[in-house]
Amino acid sequence: MSLWGGRFSEPSAAEFKQFNDSLRFDYVLAPFDLQASKAWAGALQQAGLISTDENQQLQQALTALAKQVAKQPELPLQSDAEDIHSWVEAQLIEQIGATAKKLHTGRSRNDLVATDLRLFCKQFAQHLVTANLAAIENLLSFAQTYQDAMLPGYTHLQRAQPIVAGHWAMAYVSMLQRDVSRLRETIRRLDVSPLGSGALAGTTAAIDREALAHELGFRHACENSLDGVSDRDFVLDLLNAASTGMLHLSRLAEDVIFYCSGESGCFSMSDKISSGSSLMPQKKNPDLFELLRGKTGRVMGHQHAMQITLKGLPLAYNKDMQEDKEGLFDALHAYLQCLQMLAFAMPELKVNKEHAALQAALGYSNATELADYLVSKGVPFRDAHHLTGELVVKAQQQGVALEQLTLDDFKQVCDLVDNDVYATLDLAYGLQQRKAMGGTAPSAVKVAIKHAQDWLHAAEAASKHVRQARLSDVDKICELIAYWADQGENLPRDKADILQAIQSFAVAEIDDEVVGCAALYVYSTGLAEIRSLGLFPSAQGKGLGAELVAFLLWKARELGITRTIVLTRVPEFFGKLNFRLTLKEKLPEKVMKDCDLCPRKHNCDETALEYLL
């Protein structure tokens, strides 16, 4: 059934229909089309355009159809409908007859497809965030396992300075952290509903578009109907995030391929992630990582194609925009699969420690340490650099390492060199000296891993159940605090206080219902306290308390806070989250602000703990 047949006296040619129809790929939007249709039916009832009974019929039919699609996602492909919207309407008419024909009142396929695609992108982007977090977790495990395993570091693909393998892995953790941030920013920007924009000029129906947007889970409705149906920036944003993410995976893959090569031999892969040659029995090929590298071009190609499609398009909807889906779907699925394969592959990768340490020692990679040594003797760095170069040439001529030169060899170039130079030239010494933040010293890598683990716990919390509180959460927060104040676990707080401090609160949700809260209070001294932590009894035992704490600890770090405290009657809970015991006497800010007001002031049974960020 066509949604536009009245104007035409002849059916479409089979050739045109095959070229024009999009059901073969947009059928994946069925769950979102049904979701949007349910919300639209409710809005039509609110506007008085359909009756309560008609809305109920539509809701029941749409729910039943959604269950069928969930069970059999390719169900729409059994029809010859033009697109997913036509299929949904045909199915509804078959089930409930004339009432189904009222559903399209006041809306267009233009605003409907834009809504469907945004809903799809929101959901898929969240899957990509989750997949990135899983990859980061396994990169962190690799970094922790090899945080002191020496590895040759390269610039210009020539040995430069020794690093540790944990430092190498943490570089990619940083990249993937930015990818998560980029995806979250994309989700925030696309979280706008075009439904109710009509074909281009808006709808004549008396629809509350903001309420409709919230019903669909969007932050708000778009403010311009022309832009609402025309905008595909969100597709470009998501393709850009996918392309940049794949670029990072490609760089990691290239590193692994090189380190696994016979020329390097610093890494080795398990048989689970390797393949062989059909001709050469000795080969063990890094096909998984080569595919990560190869699929990057595919994803980037889809991004470029979308840019070209949109270039010069006039407002509002044009059929060119049907090309926004196939490339997007393919790119996102490729990116998701590559992230999942990286997470799978990292535990199957190991560092050949002894061989890698030998490789790190080659290429005069301790030359910089020698230059620094000369600087410590009072030689200006530029002169030290030149003198070190002369010593490297001398060592090359003798066919020995720098540390194998005799003291006389050193003194021929610079008489300030003494026996203490040999300790400086030890590779382990050079590594240990690079302990400034971001350096490759094992101690610095250990700190970086801890920071990244804290970030990961917060990111996992934010991707599951925890978010920053909003003004609309105030009543639920009041209810939670009042409940635990009645139990004697929290100090009571009035609504005005919570409203004023809403930015300090985070909330935990289950099925979009607020079931827990916590606040990060910052004292004038820079000390922070996690307080007002509480969950409704029905939400306990699900890990939400730990998620709230992780979220607030990361918020504290972003604010530059170095020490966060709690006063609690359940110290074992916070102990599992790596808080450590401290003395209340070390918390004068807390004592002065709250303890004097506490009814248990003279019989306090709370334990003080702290977390150093």
TrEMBL record:
Cell cycle recorded as keyword:
no
- Report one GO cellular component: cytosol
Q: Which domain of life is it from?
A: Bacteria
Q: In which pathway does it act?
A: Amino-acid biosynthesis; L-arginine biosynthesis; L-arginine from L-ornithine and carbamoyl phosphate: step 3/3; Amino-acid biosynthesis; L-arginine biosynthesis; N(2)-acetyl-L-ornithine from L-glutamate: step 1/4
Catalysed reactions, semicolon-separated = 2-(N(omega)-L-arginino)succinate = fumarate + L-arginine; L-glutamate + acetyl-CoA = N-acetyl-L-glutamate + CoA + H(+)
Q: Which keywords annotate this record?
A: Acyltransferase, Amino-acid biosynthesis, Arginine biosynthesis, Cytoplasm, Lyase, Multifunctional enzyme, Transferase
According to UniProt, the name of this protein is Argininosuccinate lyase
Which organism was this protein described from?
Pseudidiomarina andamanensis
